Amino acid sequence: MFDSDTEQIIKKAVETFKNGGVIVFPTDTIHGLGCTLNNKKAIERVYQIKGRYQQPSPVLVGSLNQAKDIAYLNKIARKLISRFWPGGLTVVVPTRVNRVPELIKGSNETVGLRMPNFHLLLKIINLLEEPILGTSANVAGQPPAISQETLDERLANLVDYIVPGKSLGKKPSTIVDLTQKPAQVIREGAIPGEKISALLQS
Q1: Which of 19, 83, 90, 148 is deepest in the core (most CB within 10 A)?
Q2: CA dihedral 74, 79, 82, 88 (to 10 degrees)
Q3: Mean of the per-residue pLDDT values for the chain?
Q4: pTM reported for the whole predicted model
């Protein structure tokens, strides 16, 4: 499926993640900045690199089983996921006990989950056999990167590896909070809010 050069990129990314590194990577939306979930120091570095305090950050999964392992997916979540995953949808759902680091949780024990529609990144996550932190690759207050050329030089100099390639979109994911009743679109991005609303009402 991948040529030898791409296989080497995948291997380098997996090794860097496993060694506690912080990586920039392309996705189907915008470039991401992340690390493994089981490394508190790496998560803290991500926030330091971005220049912002702790706040909820999305988690990228490589499979539905990875999502189920760290969060509760109710009927509405499964409905949205079946339609929009892999893709530009982040769902905010309740976490399972001790499965998501406190540093990246939202209020009331929640987490934002997304499965990117980007084969190289999915391969990396599945070889890791665990989800990754996947916040936007930008310094706080600056526009997100969609390629290595648009990546802030300050940020680029602080990470351990940059996966080559261009992201497929120009907007971040759409975020839907499924812990509220009714569910709320709290950020409109890659997927139009009306598509989400139409599916929720069907």
Answers
A1: 90
A2: -90
A3: 95
A4: 0.96
